[in-house]
Amino acid sequence: MIQYILLISRQGKTRLKKWFVPCLERDQFRTIREVSSLVLSRPPKVCNFLEWRDYKICYKRYASLYFITCIEADDNELLALEAIHHFVECLDRY
């Protein structure tokens, strides 16, 4: 199950955040800061999956935005990337 979706610019500014599980606002900001620093510091040629706490972070860069999803540890990473790609295609059509 997807825990949350983030859209973050290359400069680290949050463009969109959507939580699908209840979470306090201060915990959301702490999570966004931690996850964005992890993703933004990775070189472009490495894998798009991270293990973080008890979850997996799946991300993909399109233009200057990082589309980041957090899924449970036993979920399929490729399905999360497919969901990101579908979301990008829907935004592109709009």
Outline the structure in words.
With 94 residues, the chain is an alpha+beta fold. Helices cover 35% and strands 36% of the residues. It contains two helices and five strands, in the order E-E-H-E-E-E-H. It has a five-stranded antiparallel beta sheet with strand order 2-1-5-4-3, sandwiched between helices. The longest helix has 17 residues, at 77-93. The chain starts with a strand and ends with a helix.
Short description:
With 94 residues, the protein is an alpha+beta fold. It has helices at 25-40, 77-93; strands at residues 2-9, 14-19, 49-52, 55-62, 65-72. The protein is globular.
SSE layout and pairings?
Elements lengths: L1 E8 L4 E6 L5 H16 L8 E4 L2 E8 L2 E8 L4 H17 L1
Antiparallel strand pairs: 1-2, 1-5, 3-4, 4-5
List keywords for this structure.
94 residues, 2 helices
* Total beta-strand segments: 5
Query: Measured on Cα atoms, how large is the radius of gyration?
Result: 12 Å
Low-confidence runs (pLDDT<50, min 5 residues)?
none
**Sheet with the most strands: spatial strand order:** 2-1-5-4-3
Q: Total number of helical segments?
A: 2
Class based on secondary structure composition and strand pairing: alpha+beta
Name the helicity range: 25-40%
| Largest sheet features | 5 strands, antiparallel
User: What average pLDDT do the residues reach?
Assistant: 94
Secondary-structure element sequence?
A: EEHEEEH
Approximate strand percentage: 35-45%
Choose one word for the global shape: globular
End-to-end separation in angstroms reads: 26 Å
